[in-house]
Amino acid sequence: MASTPSPPSQSPQPPEPQSKPVLRLIPLDDTVVFPSMGITLTVDVGDDERVVLVPRHENEFLEVGTIAEVSEQLRLPGGGHAVAISG
């Protein structure tokens, strides 16, 4: 009895990459923000609702950071910006 060749196997398709949110990185010089901690910074975050706060020491970023929610944005005299953020 002759065997019939089997059709070539198709390799499974890799899953579609899911889009990951892009968050603005805010470097914090010699400061660490923990989850649920509030801080006010004089930075402009645009319309972003969430940012990543990463400590920086001697111009090197540390390996961990905190995703924080922007709770309030203020316009300072002279045109500057400030934001209230909670980690």
Write the layout of secondary structure elements.
Blueprint: E1 24-29, E2 38-41, E3 50-57, E4 60-61, E5 66-75, E6 81-86
Parallel strand pairs: 1-3
Antiparallel strand pairs: 2-6, 3-4, 3-5, 5-6
Structural write-up:
The structure is a single chain. By secondary structure, the chain is an all-beta fold. It has a single domain, classed as LON domain-like (Archaeosine Trna-guanine Transglycosylase, Chain: A, domain 4, Roll), CATH 2.30.130. The protein is 0% helix and 41% strand. The protein contains no helices and 6 strands. It has strands at residues 24-29, 38-41, 50-57, 60-61, 66-75, 81-86. Strands 1, 2, 3, 4, 5 and 6 form a 6-stranded mixed β-sheet that branches. A hairpin with a 2-residue loop joins strand 3 and strand 4 (60-61). It is elongated.
Low-confidence stretches: none
Could you tell me the number of beta strands? 6
CATH architecture: Roll
Beta-strand proportion = 35-45%
| CA radius of gyration | 24 Å
**CATH top level assignment:** Mainly Beta
Task: Please state the average pLDDT score.
Answer: 86
Percentage of residues in helical conformation? under 10%
**What structural category arises from helix and sheet content?**
mainly beta
How many H/I helical runs? 0
N/C terminus separation: 72 Å
Q: Helix and strand string, N-terminal first?
A: EEEEEE
Query: What oligomeric arrangement do these chains adopt?
Result: single chain
Which outline best applies?
elongated
